[in-house]
Inverse folding.
């Protein structure tokens, strides 16, 4: 059985569950697209391969993704490139495994309801869900979807019950295209590295101040504009990082989080001091609606 | 392995933004529930074989004539307990011979309902005691239409000044209708209302727990993979 592991909650819980059910018959493919959060790839490998003993193949495909993204600045086109490259790599890796008969997916109950509702014409078109859409059809695999009866909160509950760490199970959601949609415009390796560091500092300080669990989603955004700063006696002309943190119950509406000034000050100081390519930090005070949670 | 899915609640969706919350609340108290569209067939309901049925809220008006969504008639003739919430209460009233009116006053937000008759649903649930010693509940309202005449066999369960029939009950048939939304956390003791309905009234046991779900899924995967 084959499973695409993303590091997100749903696929992680599927991996833990299937490992418990069928052990070695499960092989996971983890596609490292270079658009992950800091240390995320290593964490996935440590958790599943080392700690739990799950068979995981890590496909280091950063170059392929970044090559594909070169010169692309339209958000929808970026999503397409990332999605298509993922399918290509996943397909390639899965052909290296003998005797695959089943494909496991982290489909959850709201996805099922949504597609059923669209049948009756009451709801909108099904979103192409990152773990439902477009996986290799021609492989003629049978689908295994052990979470298709469960709501997200139930997935989390069984996740911790299966022994996954709380930090992983209750982590903020992360978009399928990853940092690709948190770098405005064209994605470059340099931008990814800067954003990853800035984001890690922000998240670390949210934890330190006890605000991580109080926010539903928090992250840094890379703005490809340069702004002037003064460091010591030298003028610096560097990039801008925006911080976003929201509180929401259902992600349909969201309010920007009223983070304490002390926290924002600390994050801003650390980012500008520790990352020499950043000269300015801004905080996003837009709520949804009208602004979306993600910037792209 | 005890069959996790042997005792379940069917939720008929009339299009409310809160329908998924109903399913979650029922599951949180340990009972499996599924959401189906309101135009489900009798055969499908029998195949699903629920221990009870919940009718969700919805944006339509039962006064809208033939186009108004209704519950399949069998819902009220299968001998199963039924809980109608908001639109679900209105269609229950209308389909069983009561009357619903479109009110010019729409009501959104917090309301305090007076418990007129506890019934099994509201038994021992009170948030406040009023000046006449009556039980009061803090609930969340979101409606325009309201039931103005109960069907035969029903008695008044709860009321507010602007919505005199905010709850109705036919204890013999185990039919309950409430105009407010127990699935929304603003309704302080909504969870207990679902407990009363699913556990006491429908007789479900609360088998749906994290450990049992894991065990069940592992068994199913093993069976599928062989």
């Amino acid at each position: 059985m084959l499973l695409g592991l993303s590091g997100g909650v749903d696929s992680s819980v599927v991996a833990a569950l299937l490992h418990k059910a069928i052990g070695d018959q499960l092989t996971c493919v983890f596609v490292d697209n270079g658009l992950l959060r800091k240390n995320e790839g290593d964490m996935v490998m440590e958790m599943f391969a080392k700690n739990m003993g799950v068979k995981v193949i890590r496909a280091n495909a950063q170059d392929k993704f970044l090559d594909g993204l070169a010169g692309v600045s339209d958000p929808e086109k970026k999503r397409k490139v990332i999605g298509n490259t993922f399918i290509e790599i996943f397909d390639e890796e899965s052909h290296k495994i003998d005797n695959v008969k089943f494909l496991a997916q982290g489909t959850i109950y709201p996805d099922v309801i949504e597609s059923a509702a669209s049948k009756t014409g009451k709801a909108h078109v099904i979103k192409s869900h990152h773990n439902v859409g477009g996986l290799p059809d021609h492989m003629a695999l049978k689908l295994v979807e052990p979470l298709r009866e469960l709501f997200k909160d139930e997935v989390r509950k069984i996740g911790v019950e299966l022994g996954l760490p709380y930090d992983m199970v209750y982590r903020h959601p992360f978009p399928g295209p990853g940092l690709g949609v948190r770098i405005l415009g064209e994605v470059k390796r340099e931008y990814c590295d800067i954003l990853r560091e800035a984001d890690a500092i922000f998240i670390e300080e949210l934890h330190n101040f006890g605000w991580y669990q109080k926010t539903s989603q928090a992250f840094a955004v890379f703005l490809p504009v340069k702004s002037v700063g003064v460091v010591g006696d030298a003028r610096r002309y560097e990039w801008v990082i925006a911080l976003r943190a929201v509180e929401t119950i259902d992600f349909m509406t969201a309010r920007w989080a009223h983070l304490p000034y002390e926290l924002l000050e600390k994050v801003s100081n650390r980012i500008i001091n520790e990352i020499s390519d950043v000269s300015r930090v801004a905080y996003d005070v837009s709520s949804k609606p009208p602004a979306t949670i993600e910037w792209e | 392995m005890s069959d996790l899915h042997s005792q379940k609640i069917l939720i008929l969706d009339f299009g409310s933004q809160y329908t998924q919350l109903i399913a979650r609340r029922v599951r949180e108290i340990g009972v499996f529930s599924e959401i189906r569209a309101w135009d489900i067939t009798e055969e499908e309901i029998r195949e699903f074989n629920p221990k009870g049925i919940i009718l969700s809220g919805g944006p339509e008006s039962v006064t809208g004539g033939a186009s108004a969504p209704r519950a399949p008639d069998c819902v009220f003739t299968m001998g199963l307990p039924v809980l109608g919430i908001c639109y679900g209460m209105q269609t229950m009233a209308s389909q069983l011979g009561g009357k619903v009116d479109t009110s010019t006053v729409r009501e959104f937000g917090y309301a305090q309902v007076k418990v007129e008759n506890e019934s099994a649903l509201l038994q021992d649930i009170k948030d406040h005691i009023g000046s006449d010693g009556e039980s009061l509940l803090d609930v969340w309202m979101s409606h325009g239409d309201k039931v103005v005449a109960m069907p035969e066999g029903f008695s008044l369960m709860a009321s507010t000044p602007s919505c005199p029939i905010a709850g109705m009950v036919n204890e013999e048939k185990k039919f309950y209708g409430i105009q407010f939304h127990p699935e929304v956390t603003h309704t302080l003791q909504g969870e207990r209302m679902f407990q009363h309905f699913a556990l006491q009234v429908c007789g479900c046991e609360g088998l749906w727990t994290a450990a049992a779900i894991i065990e069940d899924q592992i068994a199913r995967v093993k069976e599928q993979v062989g």
Q: What stands out?
A: Chain B has a mean pLDDT of 94. Residues 8-225 of chain B form a domain with the Rossmann fold fold (CATH 3.40.50.880). The CA atoms of residues 95 and 170 of chain B lie 14 Å apart. Chain B has one domain: 8-225.
